Amino acid sequence: MPFDASLSVIVTGFENSGTTVLSQLIMSSPHIFGAFECGLLLACSPREFTRVQPFHNWLPQRWRLPGRDAAAQIDKAACHQHAYSILLNQSLCLQRVGAKSLLDKTPAYVYVLDEVMRSTPGVPVVVAQKSQASQLHSWAKRGVRGDEAFKRYGAGVAAHKRAATAFPERLRTVDTHLLEACPAMRSGNVSDLSAEGCAAANATLASVYRWLSRFDPHAAWGAWDARYLTLATHKAKAVACKR
């Protein structure tokens, strides 16, 4: 049975691979938002989510849940689908931005991607990806090097391959180097959208939006707007979420 509209898309990828900016661009669509890394699917069931730290402790504050009762409802949910529905309906953050569905951005899912996709039938997954050299360099700057880095990288690649074999129609990979080349994303200026580096980023996200709309025909994805590349739309939502 496919998920309902509570969860529209999952965004994942290695840590420091560009998952944050990719999810922000997707969340520029009026109907969708995600307050912070969720991590619900790292537990076999919502009742086991209490063991998944720090995600369980993050959820009430980062998603602006109104008191302990709301968090307890998620912990007691019968299944992941029910838990997402509660989160969508209880999160003050999602209410403030007028979200009709949510995005779950959790980099840690990349290591168990096939299992995550198996537990969320019908939900599309967008994976942020850099070249191996760039990814290892990003980790090295943060103290992850040598065998540890290669082991981590190999585990993610293996899970991605399993997911791509089992669910090819629901998996989309985005080269985040293409996004980094657009100066408007750094400056926030609409005038920078005409720069050469923004053409590929614009085409990539327009294609992602068209692809996502196939899975959620009742959601108001609308057309991709190049001005989303300035991240102004997402920043306005983030401000509303924190009020």
Automatic annotation (TrEMBL):
InterPro entries: P-loop_NTPase (IPR027417). SUPFAM superfamilies: P-loop containing nucleoside triphosphate hydrolases. It holds the Pfam family Sulfotransfer_3. This is Sulfotransferase family protein. It comes from Emiliania huxleyi (strain CCMP1516). The lineage of its organism: Eukaryota, Haptista, Haptophyta, Prymnesiophyceae, Isochrysidales.
